[in-house]
Write a structure and sequence with these properties.
The protein is of the alpha/beta class and 300 residues long. Helices cover 49% and strands 17% of the residues.
């Protein structure tokens, strides 16, 4: 039975972290270590983590000054000893058989990455999808499964890949690299991961110009798509996803915000347009109608 290192970044979530840790301790798969990374919390999260570490041998706590989610994860990966690595956000929780299922899928299919989806996910069909890196990256992106939480990774995938410190959208920067490196990935469309959507988190995203950072992340993704996909058709599918992700976020999040923020977001689309217009103009997967729409938005 191979060991699983479960990495949980913790920052000022005293109201939620107990439920998260309890769900990990109750896992039916028992060969685990739970690494709690206190990222400079100023509330009772610190004490809660220490209490669990004192009570349970498999719980390890790392205290560090506030450096952000990426630094917390990178630190925990270096400290971990498991053959497999899983990430769980400290305000979320997982069903008790989650690890047992993910490990079974990993070993049954000789995979490098296995994944489940969040509870209530609109792609929660119970279907199991298996494929190579190219197929599965596009599948994960197009089924909104692009976070690193809810996934089990072989440890060696992180030998030369780290989370980008100082950036938000850490998962969108990192997951494509991990999936591209994997020979085989499996997605089980079963909602075993319970994701907590917090109002304060949403407000924080708006305050720190979340959309501008998303634009930069998508520019980076398009610029590096050639290093992930060699085939023109696959490369264009990846570019198309980044473009449509920006449009989806604009219409479903930005347009319901205030008018000033909407105008600011439109200027960010202009930045994206200038940086990657040659790529998306040549892209045969993007419809002419959508190209015109994007050009129009970039000029607002």
């Amino acid at each position: 039975m191979k060991k699983v290192s479960i990495i949980v970044p913790v920052y000022n979530i005293e109201c939620y972290v107990t439920k998260c840790i309890d769900s990990l301790i109750k896992q039916t798969y028992k060969n685990i270590e739970i690494i709690l990374v206190d990222d400079g919390s100023t509330d009772k999260s610190v004490n809660i983590c220490d209490e669990y570490s004192n009570k349970y041998e498999q719980v390890i706590v790392i205290h560090q000054e506030n450096q952000g989610l990426s630094a917390a994860r990178n630190c925990a990966i270096k400290k971990s000893t498991g053959e497999y690595i899983m990430f769980v956000d400290g305000d979320d929780w997982i069903d008790e058989k989650t690890l047992e299922i993910l490990v079974w899928l990993m070993e049954e299919d000789n995979a490098d990455i296995t994944a489940i989806v969040k509870s209530g996910h609109h792609f929660e069909s119970g279907e199991v999808i298996i494929g190579n890196s190219h197929k599965m990256l596009l599948h994960m992106l197009y089924t909104s499964c692009f976070e690193v939480w809810g996934k089990l990774f072989k440890r060696e995938l992180f030998d030369d890949i780290e989370f980008p410190v100082g950036k938000i959208h850490e998962d969108l920067y990192t997951l494509p690299k991990l999936v591209a490196k994997a020979d085989k990935s499996v997605v089980y469309h079963k909602g075993l991961y319970n994701y907590r959507c917090r109002d304060d988190s949403i407000m924080a995203n708006a305050a720190r110009d979340y959309y501008y950072e998303l634009i930069k992340c998508c520019i980076d993704g398009i610029k590096s798509s050639g290093s992930i996909f060699k085939e023109k058709e696959e490369k264009e599918e990846l570019e198309k996803w980044y473009l449509y992700h920006i449009l989806w976020y604009y219409y479903n999040v930005i347009c319901i915000a205030d008018e000033d923020y909407c105008k600011k977001a439109s200027r960010n689309i202009g930045l994206f347009y200038r940086e990657v217009k040659s790529e998306y103009r040549k892209n045969t997967k993007i419809s002419y109608k959508d190209k015109r729409l994007f050009t129009k938005l970039s000029r607002l």
